[in-house]
Structures are given as structure tokens and as C-alpha cells.
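Appendix B. Chain record.
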Amino acid sequence: MIVAINGNRHQENHLADIERLVCELMRRDHKVVMSDRFLDYLAGKLGPRFALGIHHIRLSECPLADLAVAIGGDGAFLKTAAWVGDSAIPVAGINTGHLGFLTAFSFDRPEEISRHLLDGDYAVERRSLLEVETPVGIFHALNEAAITRGEKGGTLADLEGLAPLVPGFSDDGRGVQSEAVMREAMLLAKQLDRPIAAHCEDESLLTKDWCVHDGAF
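C-alpha cells predicted for this chain:
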């Protein structure tokens, strides 16, 4: 089996889990293919030896695989769905992000990953895809377009140009990092009669060494 893996680059708490997953896939003689940016990120964190035996491919190219695995939140899942496009490769998500409505698995339940993903015991749920034609090419999306460009949450995307092609807008795996950009996006989305579904996460409000604990506050 060929397994294509993509994910977001915020995996500091799950590096060991990802390494175990890849090692187990290889131990079972499965071929592992990763998006080049995700592989570069992991090799930078885990060391260059991690990349040995792993094939890499750009996100602009559809992988030849039997299964695609998205590691992150819903943003990573949607980007992986766009990666495989209309190839009919099934996509499974392992949630390590903030929102995981589309991801069915978690590293907190490794037995489910082993039983279903690694053993191939899963059912495929078919979804409709959006085909978006732009001046730079044709792209596929699962259900919505990103509010901002480049996974940075800073520069507004072409919402007006995208609006006729999608039912709504969301973040691209990272929350919009500017109050002004978010306000502009909301006002424009109202004019375009399109909803915005996003989790608010302004990292500038974080204070170093502070944390929020469980419980009432």
C-alpha cells in the first residue's frame, strides 16, 4: 500500500507519534510519500535520518497513493483533500489541531489508528468536490475557500473572485491574525452573501509563559 501524508507545521507535541506512525508503516512494507513542505518540517525537527526512505512530492502535484493521511486539524484535512483532488484517493485525518470535525482519528487512541488505518479496516464516505479554475490553474476544494493566503492568516484572499465558486469561507489552518483583516473579510463576505466559519485565534494576545488551565474562570 502507498500512503501519502500531509500535515500542518505545528506538530511539536506529536513529533514522536508521527515518527512511530511512519516507522510502523515502513515496518509493514508500505511505501510512504509526503508533501515536501511537511517532510522538510519533520526532518528539521527529527533530524535528516527521518527522511530516509520517504518519497516527497509537491502539494501542487497529485500523489499516486492508495490512501492519504492528513495530520492536523480541519485546515490540514481540507488542504490534503485539495492535494489529492479528483483522484478518488480516500483521505483520513488524524487530529492534532484545534478543530477536528473532519478528522476521525487521534494519536490519543493509537489502537484505532492501527486497527483501521494500518490494517485497512475502514469505510470510504464519498464527498462532492469543488473545481476552481483560476489564471494559474485548476484546483479542487472540499467545501470552502480560505479567507487569507499562504497559511499565515495575514493577507486577504480574493474573496470576490472566489465567491461564485464556493458556498463560504474559512481559515486555512491558522486563524486570521489581524483584527482589521478579519473585519474586512466579514464586511466583504456580507456583501457577497457568503458565510465565514472560522475559529478566532489571534496569537498576538498570547503572553509568554502564560497558560489557561481546565476549570471555571
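Further analysis of this model is presented in Appendix C.
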